[in-house]
C-alpha cells in the first residue's frame, strides 16, 4: 500500500512524503488544487456516511452547542494537536474530537480547533466557543488586527458564517475547568500519539428530543 503524507511547513511551504521519498519546499500554488480535491472528497464522505454523533447533532440542531476548544504545540513551531469537546447547553458531552499536525504553531492549533468544531456542527446552529486563547477571543470580539495565519482566518470567517450565531468566550487555561482541561488533554495526547480521535457518547443518543 502506498504511503502519502502532506505537511505544511512554518515558512508556509509544503512537504510531501510519498512512500520513501520526501519532496521539500513545495510551493503552495502547486499543492492547493490537491487540497481542494481532498476537502471536496471529505465533505462528500461526511454527507454520505452518517455517524451516530452526527445524527444526534442534526436532530438537536436548534439547541445551543457549547464547545470547549484547545490547541497545543511541542516546540512552537513543531508538532501540534488540536481538540474540542462539544456539549449541549446542559453540559452533556456529545462529541470529543482531536487532530494532529506535523509542523505548526500553538496559535494555528487554537484556530484549527475552532474551525474544525464549527464545520462539524450543522448549519444554522447557535454556538458558544470556550477557548483559552486570548488572541483568538480578542481578535474576534475586539477586532484585533490580523497579522498572521491569514489563511486560517479566512477559513475561520467561513466557518462562522455557517451558523445562526457564534459567541467566543475566553476562559483561563489550566485552571481546573473540567472541559477546558479535557480539551487540553486531548490536544496534548494527539501530539504524543501523532494522531487524533472522534468519540461520541452513546448515552446521549438515548435522550429524548426537546
Discrete helix count = 7
- Counting DSSP E segments of at least 2 residues, the number of strands comes to 9
**Measured distance between first and last alpha carbons:** 47 Å
Gyration radius, rounded: 17 Å
* CATH architecture grouping of the largest domain: 2-Layer Sandwich
How would you characterize the largest beta sheet?
A: 6 strands, mixed
CATH superfamily of the largest domain: Ribonuclease H-like superfamily/Ribonuclease H
Q: Which of globular, elongated, flat, extended, rod-shaped describes the shape? A: globular
Briefly note the CATH topology name of the largest domain. Answer: Nucleotidyltransferase, domain 5
Summed up:
The chain has helices at 28-48, 52-59, 106-120, 134-142, 150-161, 178-193, 202-205; strands spanning 4-8, 14-18, 21-26, 64-73, 78-88, 93-104, 126-131, 165-170, 198-200. It is built from seven helices and nine strands; from the N terminus they run E-E-E-H-H-E-E-E-H-E-H-H-E-H-E-H.
Textual characterization of the structure:
This protein has 210 residues and is α+β, with helices and mostly antiparallel strands. It has 2 domains: 4-48, no CATH class; 52-205, Nucleotidyltransferase, domain 5, CATH 3.30.420.10. Helix content is 40%, strand content 30%. The chain has 7 helices and 9 strands. The chain has helices at 28-48, 52-59, 106-120, 134-142, 150-161, 178-193, 202-205, and strands at 4-8, 14-18, 21-26, 64-73, 78-88, 93-104, 126-131, 165-170, 198-200. The strands form 2 sheets. A 6-stranded mixed β-sheet has the order 8-7-4-5-6-9, sandwiched between helices. A 3-stranded antiparallel β-sheet has the order 1-2-3. A hairpin with a 5-residue loop joins β1 (4-8) and β2. α3 packs parallel to α5 (150-161). The longest helix has 21 residues, at 28-48.
Amino acid at each position: 500500500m502506498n504511503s502519502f503524507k502532506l505537511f505544511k511547513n512554518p515558512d508556509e511551504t509544503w512537504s510531501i512524503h510519498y512512500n520513501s521519498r520526501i519532496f521539500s519546499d513545495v510551493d503552495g500554488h502547486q499543492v492547493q488544487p490537491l487540497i481542494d480535491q481532498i476537502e471536496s472528497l471529505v465533505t462528500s464522505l461526511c454527507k454520505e456516511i452518517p455517524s451516530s454523533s452526527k445524527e444526534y447533532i442534526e436532530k438537536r440542531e436548534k439547541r445551543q452547542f457549547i464547545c470547549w476548544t484547545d490547541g497545543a504545540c511541542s516546540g512552537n513551531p513543531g508538532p501540534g494537536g488540536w481538540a474540542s469537546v462539544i456539549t449541549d447547553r446542559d453540559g452533556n458531552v456529545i462529541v470529543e474530537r482531536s487532530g494532529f499536525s506535523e509542523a505548526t504553531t500553538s496559535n494555528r492549533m487554537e484556530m484549527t480547533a475552532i474551525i474544525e468544531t464549527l464545520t462539524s456542527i450543522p448549519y444554522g446552529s447557535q454556538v458558544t466557543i470556550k477557548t483559552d486563547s486570548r488572541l483568538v477571543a480578542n481578535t474576534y470580539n475586539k477586532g484585533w488586527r490580523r497579522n498572521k495565519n491569514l489563511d486560517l482566518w479566512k477559513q475561520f470567517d467561513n466557518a462562522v458564517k455557517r451558523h445562526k450565531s457564534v459567541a467566543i468566550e475566553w476562559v483561563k487555561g489550566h485552571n481546573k475547568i473540567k472541559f477546558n482541561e479535557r480539551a487540553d488533554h486531548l490536544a496534548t495526547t494527539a501530539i504524543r500519539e501523532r494522531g487524533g480521535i472522534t468519540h461520541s457518547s452513546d448515552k446521549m443518543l438515548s435522550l429524548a428530543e426537546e
